[in-house]
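hiii so um. not sure if this is the right channel but i have a protein structure encoded as tokens and i wanna go backwards to a sequence. like what aa goes where. can anyone help
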């Protein structure tokens, strides 16, 4: 399951928007998105990044209202995110006893398997691989649905027919033909 969270800019960050999209057999499914009212207001800095305002979430449900749906969506054998420690940290704070599955961080995977780039920021990789070329105009960077879809496309692009061990943070060794492929 690929996830992306947008935060309120507070420390620690609180959830404002969450999107998740499955990848099954290398095929990206339909994303699901939740807009939630954070416990603290969205900061000016965060609004400048993702464009979500306090007015946008005024009538949104609090996280507890959507928590069961989020848990169901995150019930997967792996979690994929770009700069995953941020997303995982927010989810762990919000979900308490949630057991995070194995994590594939596309930032770390790209740095390791696509060497020589001047930037590994999601936007730079999106541009390089044209991951958003066919998106509708209402899908914009730094919104959870956009980010989760381009992260999913990036993961599929990188994963290709690589062995699962190659994608892990700490590969246990072996070559391309030695391990199970992800898809």
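sure thing!! here u go:
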């Amino acid at each position: 399951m690929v996830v992306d969270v947008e935060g309120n800019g507070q420390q620690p960050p609180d959830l404002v928007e969450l999107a998740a999209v499955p990848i099954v057999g290398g095929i990206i499914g339909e994303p699901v998105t939740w807009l939630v009212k954070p416990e603290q207001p969205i900061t000016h800095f965060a609004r400048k990044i993702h464009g979500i305002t306090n007015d946008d979430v005024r009538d949104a449900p609090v996280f507890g209202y959507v928590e069961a749906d989020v848990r169901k969506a995150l019930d997967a054998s792996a979690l994929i995110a770009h700069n995953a420690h941020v997303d995982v940290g927010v989810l762990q704070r919000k979900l308490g006893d949630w057991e995070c599955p194995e994590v594939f961080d596309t930032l770390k995977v790209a740095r390791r398997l696509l060497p020589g780039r001047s930037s590994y920021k999601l936007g730079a990789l999106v541009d390089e691989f044209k991951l958003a070329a066919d998106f509708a105009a209402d899908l914009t960077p730094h919104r959870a649905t956009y980010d989760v879809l381009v992260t999913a496309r990036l993961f599929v692009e990188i994963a290709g027919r690589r062995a699962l061990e190659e994608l892990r943070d700490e590969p246990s060794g072996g070559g391309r033909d030695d391990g199970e492929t992800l898809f």
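oh and The helical segments are 44-50, 54-57, 63-73, 84-95, 106-113, 122-129, 144-159, 164-167.
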